[in-house]
Structures are given as C-alpha cells and as structure tokens.
Amino acid sequence: MTTDLTRQAAHEMALALRDGSVSARDLAVAHLEAAERQNRALNAWLTIDRPAALAQADATDARLAAARRDGPAAIAALHPLHGIPVALKDLISVEGGQCTAGSRILEGYRSPYDAHIVERLRAAGAVFLGKTNMDEFAMGSSNEYSAYGPVSNPWDLNTVPGGSSGGSAAVVAAHHTPLSLGTDTGGSIRQPAALCGIVGMKPTYGRVSRYGIVAFASSLDQLGPFARNARDAAALLHAIAGRDERDSTSAPIPVPDELLQLPASDDEAAAWLRGKRFGLPREYFVAGMDPDVERRIRESVAFIEDAGATVEEVSLPHTDYGLAAYYIVAPAEASANLARYDGVRFGQSRRLEAADFIADYLATRGEGFGAEVKRRIMLGTYALSAGYYDAFYVKAQKVRTLIKRDFDRVFATGIDALVAPTSPTVAFRFGARLADPVSMYLSDACTLPVNMAGLPGVSIPCGLSEGLPVGLQLIGPAWSEPVLFRAARAFEGVTAAATWRDQEPTDLGLADDASGPTPAQRAAARAAR
Q1: Which of 164, 335, 443, 459 is catalytic?
Q2: Active site residue 276
Q3: How many separate helices (H) and strands (E) can be counted in the chain?
Q4: Ranges under pLDDT 70 in the chain
Q5: What pLDDT score does 119 carry?
Q6: Which residue among 188, 423, 459, 480 is the active-site one?
Q7: At 372, which helix (H) or strand (E)?
Q8: Distance separating alpha carbons of residues 78 and 309, to the nearest angstrom
Q9: What pLDDT, on the 0 to 100 scale, is given for residue 355?
Q10: What is the pLDDT of residues 183-239, one digit of tens each?
Q11: Strand order across the 468-475 sheet
Q12: How big, in percent rounded to 5, are the helix, strand and coil portions of the chain?
C-alpha cells in the first residue's frame, strides 16, 4: 500500500480507516489539496467545497471512533465507503448546493433537497468533495460543451477527457478522488472512462434512482460509478443502487451483495474466467476505428481466451441503426424535459426582461442555452411535431425494440457477456470535432446501443495507444452487474503484470504549474492555428 493517500484504492483507504492508521480528515485534506492545486490546469471541478467536506469527514471520524469502542461487529457493520471521498457530477442535487448541469441557465440555482443517491451516500458515510464539470445538460462526447469551459484530460492536457461526464472521469484519473459519479445517456460514463483510463459503469436502466437528477432523456439516463478499479466501482454502485418510491422507473430489484465480494487476489479473480463464454460483436468494429485501438481490443480478447474463456464472434445486426435512432429519441425527450427552463419555473437568474412573456421566454432561453443544447432541442421538437412524429419518433422506437431483441437473442444462447471496444478512438484534441457534430456523435457509436436496450455496460482500461488509454467494454443482460464486475476484476487479474497498469497519467505533473494555460486557453490557441 502506497503512503501517498491519493494513490491508494478506495478499498485500501477503507482498511486504513478501520484500523485507525488514517483518518477521514486526512483523506479529505490530501484529496482537496490535489484538487485545488491542479484544477486551474484541468477545469474538472466546478466547485470544491472544503468546509463541507471537512465537516463531513470529522463527523465520519466520530462515528468510526464510536464503532471502534463498540467492537469488531460495529466496525464490520460500516459500509465500505464510510469516510471515502466522492465527487458528484454537477447535475446531482445536494441540498443547499449548486446544480448547474453545466449550463448558464441554472447559474445561481440552489437545490432545496438531496437526490436519492446523495441520501444513500450520506447514509454510507461518504465524504463529498464537490461538483464536477460536464457538458451542458449532459449533451456531448468531449466535455467541450460546458458553459464553464472545457476539461483537460490528465493524460494529455491538449486533449478532451470525453463527455458528458468528463469532469467526473478526469478527477478520478488525476487522483483528486478515488470515486465519482456520472450519468450515462448514450455512453457518457463509459466513453470518458475509456479516454481517461479508469473504470466506469452504466448500470441496468432502473437499477439506480434518477430522483434529484437533472434530466436529459428520461428513458435513457442512468447514474453510475467511476473508480480506478473494479472493486471500488462495484462498492460505489452497491451504495447508490436500490428501489426509490419517488422514481417510478426505479426497479424493485434487490441490491446484490456480490458487489462487495469481488476477490482481492489476482489469481482468484482470473480463475473465474475458466469456462465462461464471451461474445465479440462484429458490428462494434466500426468504420473509422483507430487501427491501434482495434489491436488493443483484440489483444485483450486473447488475454481472456488464454485465461480459459471462450470468445466467439456474434452479430447484432441492428447496431448500425442505433446512432440514427438514438439521435431521434434522445433529442425528443430532451425537448420535453428542457421546456421547464423558461425563466419562470427554472432559470430565473438568467431571466431577461423583454416586451412580453413570449419575448422574455425566447430571450432567456436564447441567452441561457448553449449551441449544442439548442441544436438538440430543435431536432427533438421537429421529430415530435405534427406530421413527423410517426415518421421519425415512432419509427425510432421500433428500431430501439429491434436493437433490444438483438441483445436478447445473443444472451439467450448462453453468452455470459459481450466484449467490445468502448470508443473507436483514443482521446482527441480540443476542437477536432466541434465543427462536425456528426463526427462528434460517432464517438458514442459503440456505447449508445446499450442505452437503447436498457442494459448494463462497463468500460475498463486495456492498454495504451500512442500513450493514451484504450477502453474495453463489457456488456451483459439486464441486472447482470455482479457478473460484469467479476469479469472486469478477472481482466484486472490476467493483466496485473502489464506495464501500462503502473503508468500515471502522462501530463499530470504539468497540472501542478499554477502559471500554465487553462483548458480554455489551450482550446483557443488550437482554434487560432
């Protein structure tokens, strides 16, 4: 175990907290100092709440002290996240705190209540460090669409971390926190996890309550964890999952304790692969995929086979229609969800007084929303309009059913999980895709079918391409999160000796330079070339 507290895994921190060799305040201070020192270079945090974090840490230490007095049973009863720092994407409601969703239209808004997952994390004893940057209203694949400036990838400060949960991914990769939470509507956890070289899971739709979360597309959004290893990500999912009566889409499915029982031994973890069957969908090797990324994926498949698993090629024939269907369904739902930001119900701080209510409404939304949000609202409104609803929206929902049937058919053959690329490329440079929205949308080609089908998927690091991380995606049937995490942990076991596993994000040291350029300045310099 390293003596640098920010380099320890969350499960290592949990052991140290329980034996009294470290305090929750020690952990909070170490991570807060790293975040405050490097955030100018990364712009990954929208707010770092030192006073609240230290108050929570002190309360956690008091509960730990009481548990030690009560004996081993009381210590064992504490959740594994007790005293562990966590970062929250800035569309998660925390009572009294900001919740901007990366948009100017919610600037100054303070949430009057806690989201369900915040309630669950408070009960577990987690310590909230602050809120992370994100693409506006979770619409984006690069974190360049935030109204508060882009986020830099700690592996290369001139590249993006992925989106929309790029801030949540970057702070974990940069060791500002061991754990964070994001949302995934079309790949917004898995894709930034891949680009930042960490673990990120999108759970089954309904596994985690969406109560208290700013909505993008309600039938697709799902909350999920980021961590630097499978054990920590599984523990975070265990803490936030479960039925919530305030969310009608929250499923009454028990939270599996297997999420807390992943093996500590690499050999034991790797042994799980023997006799397992994996499918390799041919359609996920999309046109334009980086050849080196494909090599890393196929090398990973070979590792899995060498450990005793069977990997067979399968077909998901309607995958090619997923991108088009998604960009009808998601904008249509966004068009409805974002209607509330009108300067009356929400967005009062950005309200612009005009000649009449309609002019006021249009001016407020025109000023408060960014270009990408406006683009998707227009697409969605068009798809839902009279004369086009049946031609576009209804047809897209039918395609969605066909995508789900493809997955069902494959899993019915006894396949334990699918293995596929997470992103067709590694992290790309600022501005590389801003002028071509379709090119940006193709970043999610390998992830969004999972959202359309409501299935769980996890991205795990599988190597480097030109010094930047590559992500391997594991996809399972509904409610198979324990299996996916066992598979992820097994892959960690079979690749434990790989040299890339010990490599720090390449540009992390540069982030310590307080006089260096910000991500916005880097992006502007590139655009000026």
Answers
A1: 164
A2: no
A3: 18, 11
A4: 1-2, 347-355
A5: 98
A6: 188
A7: helix 371-384
A8: 36
A9: 59
A10: 999 999 999 999 999 999 999 999 999 999 999 999 999 999 999 999 999 999 999
A11: 45-48, 127-132, 85-89, 179-184, 222-227, 199-202, 457-465, 468-475, 417-421, 277-281, 310-314
A12: 45, 15, 40
Q: Is 302 exposed, middle or buried (0-12, 13-18, 19+ CB in 10 A)?
A: exposed
Percent of the chain exceeding pLDDT 90 equals 91
pLDDT of 354: 59
- Topology adopted by domain 7-262+270-321+400-503+517-528: Amidase signature (AS) enzymes (3.90.1300)
**Which one from 89, 131, 202, 276 is the annotated catalytic residue?**
89
Q: How many CA atoms lie within 13 A of 158 on its CB side?
A: 6
188 catalytic residue (yes or no):
yes
At residue 212, the pLDDT reads 98
Centroid of chain to Cα 378: 26
Whether 474 and 419 have beta carbons less than 8 Å apart is answered as yes
Contact 25, 13 (CB under 8 A): no
Domain ranges of the chain: 7-262+270-321+400-503+517-528
Task: Give one DSSP letter per residue of 142-204, joined into a string.
Answer: SS---TT----BTTBTTB---SSSHHHHHHHHTTS-SEEEEEESSSTTHHHHHHHTSEEEEPP
Amino acid identity, position 77? A
